[in-house]
Amino acid sequence: MASTKATAAPSAVAKETLAYCTSCKIDLAHLIVSMKGDKIAKVECKTCKKTHGYKAPKGVTEVAPKKKRASKKNEDGSPSATTIEAEWEKLMSAHREAPFKGYTMKSKFILGDKIKHPTFGEGIVGKLIYPNKLEVIFRTDIKVLIHGGA
């Protein structure tokens, strides 16, 4: 399996990307620290805070360009909390009959499951990320969580 470096715009420094953490030994969210031309050179793991050379996530051979979302942005470029909250309320009302499941990393979740997280509160699974991650929409933020561990 041939691996190529991810490409991003030069203004991508300080943006978030998915990368293989050489310290944690899994794919995690990282902040881009430096670029070499239009390729990501160094990243900082948001979990362990270590800086290392960029390594593509396991199983990824080429990074597709991100689709742009039609959502409101704050002045700093981050999604607006009111937009996230509106989406959260819409999804929660659409799944109001579903029970909440307690979050643990070992539990398996599917799209639309309602989660009660000990730190972030009530959320709903908005996206499944292969093989063991999911994007959960909480009232004020969107988090990528691990699930389905052994």
Features:
150 residues, mainly beta, 2 domains, five-stranded mixed β-sheet, four-stranded antiparallel β-sheet, 9% helix, elongated
Record the SSE blueprint:
Blueprint: E1 16-20, E2 27-36, E3 39-45, E4 51-53, H1 81-94, E5 100-102, E6 114-117, E7 121-129, E8 133-138, E9 142-146
Parallel strand pairs: 5-6
Antiparallel strand pairs: 1-2, 2-3, 3-4, 6-7, 7-8, 8-9
Describe the structure.
- The protein has a 5-stranded mixed beta sheet with strand order 5-6-7-8-9. A 4-stranded antiparallel beta sheet has the order 1-2-3-4, with no helix packed on it.
- The protein is 9% helix and 35% strand.
- The radius of gyration is 17 Å and the shape is elongated.
- It folds into 2 domains: 1-64, no CATH class; 81-146, no CATH class.
- By secondary structure, it is mainly beta.
- 16% of the residues are buried.
Shape: elongated
End-to-end separation: 26 Å
Rg from Cα: 17 Å
Please report the number of helical segments: 1
Order of strands across the main sheet: 5-6-7-8-9
Could you give a quick summary of the protein structure above?
The protein has one helix and nine strands; from the N terminus they run ββββαβββββ. With 150 residues, the protein is mainly beta. The strands form two sheets. The protein has a five-stranded mixed sheet. A four-stranded antiparallel sheet has the order 1-2-3-4, with no helix packed on it.
